[in-house]
Design goal:
The chain has six helices and 17 strands. By secondary structure, it is α+β, with helices and mostly antiparallel strands.
């Protein structure tokens, strides 16, 4: 890559110094247009501005010149430079809570709590899983850059459950390839609104940015969507709610949330694709709404990454790790199982 300061589009101001960046493409971004990929990582820049940057020749994929419509694939390294981009610094070690399900010389398997962002990004610098990983100082891969040590895949902020972290670059490459080739097995537990007509089914719908609201994902047609498939099974039915097990074949952004909402059964407490709002004891018929005991049981969307299976990068053996259901979702299930109708 040219070591000279790259040209960047002018916004009507004198030219400022450009800060280089390096981004590793993960499973959730595989197949995306380069300009879309960049806009998701640099939310403070418009997609039009980023297109112009690419056209200037200052963004490359794997060291090769690229176009705005070029597709990125998992494992690609996208490099370039942006004016006024905060210089990535050393991640501050912070005692961020998370469970460790397994640890060896190749990888770490963690149980991420809900409410924790996986890695620093636009508007979030502290309190991430990465801050907690650095605090424990176990040693991780660095192919994802200084702000994503060991991060092979992600979970939404409010999704709890199992994640794998690579401890060296060879393990990272092996794990990333398995995610790309869809050789991993993923199992999620979700509590949804309503009761599905059938006991199991498949949602096969490409996912992309919603044309009505770009801050949301949606099932879309054409090149804007990435192929996405989710199998699901109803495990337990309640009065107006259902515990569902999901097996996503792909790993698109908000995939399970979008797919379940598309069949009329959004996640409980999902403010983006469902009704939002908290789930209380009164919602499970354990008390009246005006009762002093009407405590809040769940404040986030009801989705938990229950299990993850893959071939171990060191031994090549098939392994599977499970994270116990998060306490708040367990409270909801206990309430739904024991609740009885009360007069309101």
């Amino acid at each position: 890559m040219n070591t000279d300061a790259p040209k960047t589009p002018s916004d009507g101001e004198s030219r400022r110094s450009a800060v280089p960046f390096s981004l590793l493409v993960g499973e959730e971004d595989a197949g995306a247009r380069l300009d879309v990929f960049l806009s998701e990582h640099f939310a403070d820049r418009s997609r039009t501005w980023l297109k112009r940057l690419v056209k200037e020749g200052d963004v490359r994929i794997g060291g090769r010149p690229a176009k705005p419509a070029s597709r990125v694939e998992i494992g690609d390294v996208v490099t370039g430079a942006l004016e006024d981009l905060p210089v990535p610094g050393v991640i501050e070690p912070q005692d961020v809570p998370f469970g460790v399900l397994h640890k060896d010389e190749d990888l770490l398997v963690v149980d991420k709590p809900a409410g924790i962002v996986v890695h620093p990004g636009a508007g979030v610098r502290d309190g991430t899983l990465v801050n907690g990983l650095v605090y424990r100082a176990l040693g991780y891969s660095d192919v994802g850059g200084v702000e994503r040590p060991g991060i092979v895949h992600r979970l939404d902020r409010d999704t709890s459950g199992v994640m794998v972290v690579a401890r060296h670059n060879a393990a990272h490459a092996a794990l990333a390839k398995q995610f790309h080739d869809r050789e991993t097995s993923k199992t999620y537990l979700a509590i949804v609104l309503g009761e599905p007509r059938f006991d199991e089914g498949v949602v096969d719908g490409a996912i992309g940015r919603s044309r009505r609201d770009p801050s949301k994902m949606a099932i879309v047609a054409g090149e804007e969507g990435k192929p996405a498939l989710t199998r699901w099974k109803a495990l337990e039915r309640f009065n107006g709610y259902t515990l569902v097990e999901c097996y996503p074949r792909t790993g698109r952004t908000h995939q399970i949330r979008v797919h379940l909402a598309s069949i009329g059964h959004p996640l409980l407490c999902d403010p983006v694709y469902g009704r939002g709002g908290d789930f209380r004891r009164s919602d499970a018929n354990l008390c009246r709404r005006d009762d002093k005991s009407d405590a809040i049981l769940l404040k986030r969307h009801a989705l938990h990454a229950r299990a993850l299976g893959f071939r171990h990068p060191g031994s090549a053996e098939a392994v599977r790790f499970e994270a116990p259901l998060a306490t708040d979702m367990e409270f909801v299930l206990v309430a739904l199982r024991t609740g009885r109708p009360v007069r309101r």
